[in-house]
């Protein structure tokens, strides 16, 4: 599958990236999820609190990644969708603590910490369809993360993508919050230029 042409819009990129993800064989997905879990656990962050997400469908990652973070002593926060507003956050206490949310998502069942929890986190693993070398991230197109991360500063923002989803250049808009790094199965943590 060739990449969308230079100048293609976000919708074209999304279509391409989603269909490419759907074509990834289950065993490759599983191997990539394991690699991501190992990398996440090995990150030498002094990150007491890490925002993360429960992968849905063909998204990279797994609950194993969240469990590795917990085993490494991190407090793991998960997003809660509250409409067209910044995401709320709750603590991950293991698979059994998750409840069904919209879009086939699983969400934390306990106390809501409020949208500001991400600004006080020590790092955030952010779901993405792709990210470019500048840190421009392409999400699902609802703006949940852009609204949630606008104004957040000093928190490493790490887009979790498959290796081929770290690309040279994505279409960016002024509201797109730049990622500081990408976490990929093959490359581990890759720092992005922010330029
Ligand atoms: N895992 C995860 N959690 C997240 C996000 C995300 O992108 N991924 N979000 C980011 O903003 C927010 C929720 N937004 C979402 C919006 C749409 C879909 C979605 O289109 N789901 C597909 C099924 C999944 C698939 O097969 O890939 C669907 O409903 O058809 C998922 C999450 C907060 N939590
Ligand atoms: N800071 C913001 N405040 C209000 N609306 C916003 C903000 N950022 C983005 N939006 C709105 O969200 C919509 C989707 O934006 P965009 O296409 O960049 O989403 P995305 O980054 O792919 O998705 P997401 O952030 O949910 O993962 C846009 O219509 C945009 O106007």
From TrEMBL:
Keyword Transport: no
GO molecular function per UniProt: 5-formyltetrahydrofolate cyclo-ligase activity
Protein name in the entry: 5-formyltetrahydrofolate cyclo-ligase
Catalytic activity reported: (6S)-5-formyl-5,6,7,8-tetrahydrofolate + ATP = (6R)-5,10-methenyltetrahydrofolate + ADP + phosphate
Cofactor(s) it depends on: Mg(2+)
Enzyme class, spelled out: ligase
Highest taxon of source: Bacteria
UniProt family annotation: Belongs to the 5-formyltetrahydrofolate cyclo-ligase family.
EC nos: 6.3.3.2
Keywords noted in UniProt: ATP-binding, Ligase, Magnesium, Metal-binding, Nucleotide-binding
């Amino acid at each position: 599958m060739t990449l969308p042409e230079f100048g293609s819009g976000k919708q074209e990129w999304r279509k391409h990236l989603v269909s490419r993800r759907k074509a990834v064989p289950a065993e490759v997905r599983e191997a990539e999820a394991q690699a991501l879990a190992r990398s996440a656990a090995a990150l030498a962050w002094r990150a007491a609190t890490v925002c993360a997400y429960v992968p849905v469908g063909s998204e990279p990652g797994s609950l194993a990644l969240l469990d590795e973070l917990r085993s490494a002593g991190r407090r793991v926060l998960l997003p809660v969708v509250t409409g067209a507003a910044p995401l709320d956050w709750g603590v991950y206490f293991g698979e059994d603590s998750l409840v069904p949310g919209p879009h086939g998502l699983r969400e934390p069942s306990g106390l809501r910490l409020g949208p500001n929890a991400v600004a006080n986190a020590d790092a955030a693993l952010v779901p993405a369809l792709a990210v470019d070398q500048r840190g421009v991230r392409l999400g699902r197109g609802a703006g949940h993360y852009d609204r949630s991360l606008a104004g957040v500063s000093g928190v490493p923002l790490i887009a979790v993508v498959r290796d081929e989803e770290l690309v040279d250049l994505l279409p960016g808009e002024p509201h797109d919050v730049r990622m500081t790094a990408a976490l990929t199965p093959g490359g581990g943590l890759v720092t992005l230029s922010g330029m």
